[in-house]
Design brief:
single chain; mainly alpha; 2 domains; three-stranded antiparallel sheet; 6 helices
C-alpha cells in the first residue's frame, strides 16, 4: 500500500525529494523496488541520509545502525542511567544510548569481553533475530507456525534464529531472496532494511518515533 503522506515528491530527475528536511536524494530513484521503503524511513526519521543528497541504499547494515533504528522505532526510550553494558562503548559513541537500551530490552547481547562491535555487518539471520527480539520485548504478535520448509537452505539457519525467521516470514516482514532461498548468512543493505521497517509498521503499527 502506497504511503499517502504528501511529504514526498518526485522531481524531474526521478529521484526522491523529502519535504520534511528539504533534501533531494539523488541515489534513490522513484519506482525502484525499495523507493517506497526509503521514503517511509526518511519521512519518519527512522533512518537518515549518509551524506548530503545521498541515502546509500546498497550500503550494508551494521549492528550500530540497526539497534539505532529499533531504538527510534520504540520512541527513543531511555536506558537506565546507571547502565554501561559494553566495554567498547562510551557516551561519545553516537549509538551509545541505543545499544544500552537494546541490552536492557534483551534485543542484543555482548560478545566475548563485553564488546558490542557496532561496526559489525549483520547477516540476515542476525538482523531478523534482533527484530524478533524487539517484537517479543514490545508484546507484538509473535506466534507463527512452521513455514520455512519451502526454502532449500532452511538448515543453514542458526538454531536460535529459526523461530525468528518463522515469525518474520509468516508476517511478511522478510521474504526469500529468490530461487527458494532465505540466505540467512547473507548481508542486508539499507534499502532492504527500509522495506523491512515499512512492512513492520504496516503489519503492527507500533511506530512511536519522537523528534530528536
Amino acid at each position: 500500500m502506497k504511503d499517502k503522506n504528501k511529504n514526498t515528491n518526485k522531481n524531474k530527475n526521478n529521484s526522491i525529494y523529502i519535504e520534511n528536511n528539504g533534501i533531494n536524494y539523488i541515489d534513490v530513484i522513484t519506482g525502484a523496488w525499495y523507493s517506497e521503503g526509503v521514503e517511509f524511513v526518511l519521512k519518519t526519521g527512522l533512518m537518515n541520509g549518509t551524506a548530503k543528497n545521498q541515502f546509500s541504499p546498497q550500503l550494508n547494515i551494521t549492528r550500530a545502525m540497526l539497534i539505532t533504528i529499533l531504538h527510534r522505532y520504540a520512541g527513543l526510550e531511555a536506558p537506565s542511567k546507571t547502565s554501561h553494558y559494553f566495554t567498547d562503548i562510551n557516551e561519545k559513541n553516537w549509538y551509545s544510548d541505543a545499544a544500552h537500551w537494546g541490552k536492557e530490552q534483551n534485543i542484543i547481547d555482548a560478545f566475548r569481553g563485553g564488546k558490542f562491535f557496532g561496526d559489525k555487518i549483520l547477516t540476515r539471520e542476525e538482523l531478523v533475530l534482533m527484530i524478533y527480539r524487539f517484537a517479543v520485548a514490545k508484546n507484538l504478535q509473535i506466534y507463527a507456525s512452521d513455514n520455512l520448509m519451502a526454502y532449500s537452505d532452511v538448515n543453514e539457519i542458526a538454531p536460535e534464529a529459526v523461530k525468528a525467521f518463522n515469525w518474520a516470514v509468516a508476517n511478511g516482514i522478510v521474504n526469500g531472496t529468490g530461487n527458494g532461498l532465505l540466505s540467512p548468512k547473507a548481508t542486508t543493505t539499507r534499502a532492504e532494511v527500509a522495506i523491512i521497517f515499512m512492512r513492520l509498521n504496516q503489519k503492527f503499527g507500533y511506530l512511536k518515533l519522537k523528534k530528536y
